[in-house]
Amino acid sequence: RMGNLIYAFLRQHRDTQQRRLHESDIQAFRSMPEKLRMGMHYESYQPTISGHSFFESIHRIDMTGFMNVCHFAISQVFVQVAEDAMSYGVEAEAMHFVLSGRLWYHHGKNEGSPDIVGLGAWFAEMVVWLQWIHRGRLVAQTPCELLRLDAK
Q1: Among 7, 24, 38, 122, which residue's Cβ finds the most Cβ atoms within 10 Å?
Q2: What is the Cα 135 distance to its own chain's centre?
Q3: DSSP H helical segments within the chain, as ranges?
């Protein structure tokens, strides 16, 4: 009986704790010519970050600059269930785009009911424009895949 319960639990949760394969997991990508990697980053990240009007404008106006953002400033991040993607009072280092999963945004120090943040959303945008301290807490409710756009 106990074995069946454990097996059922593991079957139900096997996919929830696994993250997607990231570029850093594939050794061959490390030796790929930079120009090819730059094109791969553009193709991979452009659809997501162009959803933001500022980055869509950069994409239209300055393709080289946009490709540089995709290549040099963006990385993939996995956030586990119950892990903070953003913590109250901590200096922001990056803007993030949600590729998959669901997070809860708690205003302030966990005040009130949380807002749901999911696919297609972005957060911590202010760090792109100025030095920023997070004003809330963002916690993964499901496993989440994010794109991290470094502000520096």
Answers
A1: 122
A2: 18
A3: 2-13, 27-30, 34-49, 53-61, 63-68, 126-129
